[in-house]
Design goal:
- The protein has 123 residues and is mainly α.
- It contains 5 helices and 2 strands.
- Helix 3 crosses helix 4.
- It is extended, with a radius of gyration of 20 Å.
Length: 123
């Protein structure tokens, strides 16, 4: 019934503007191998969590790790997990800024772009 109203209405039906979130599907999980152990069946770990999770997926700031290490990295409680998370955060920031500088940005512009994207400087 509601659809027929919009068919005869002079004002078109408002479209959805919310971007659909991407997900780390399990289609190729069996083919993935853990970065640390080499075991198959690895899960994708987004390096930047919380509000930046979708940014991590969109920009491929991810690593494949076995479920045990994935849980450890997500919890971020042990010194080893904190060290690994810090390494990957710094790595992906350097990689992102380097790509921007190759495209013609100055180091300062690259850093500002990074901070606008993630909200924090890890270097």
């Amino acid at each position: 019934m509601k659809d027929s109203y919009y068919e005869t209405c002079a004002i078109p039906k408002p479209g959805t503007v919310k971007k659909q979130k991407q997900m780390n599907g399990y289609k190729d999980k069996a083919k993935r191998h853990c970065f640390y152990t080499g075991r198959p069946g690895a899960e994708r770990h987004e390096i930047f969590r919380g509000n930046n999770r979708q940014i991590s997926i969109d920009n491929k700031f991810q690593i494949d790790v076995c479920p045990e290490i994935h849980r450890e990295l997500q919890d971020d409680l042990t010194p080893l997990a904190q060290e690994r998370n810090k390494f990957w955060q710094e790595y992906y920031q350097m990689k992102y800024e380097y790509r921007l500088m190759l495209a013609g940005a100055t180091p300062k512009q690259a850093r500002i772009t990074w901070i606008n994207l993630i909200g924090r400087n890890y270097l």
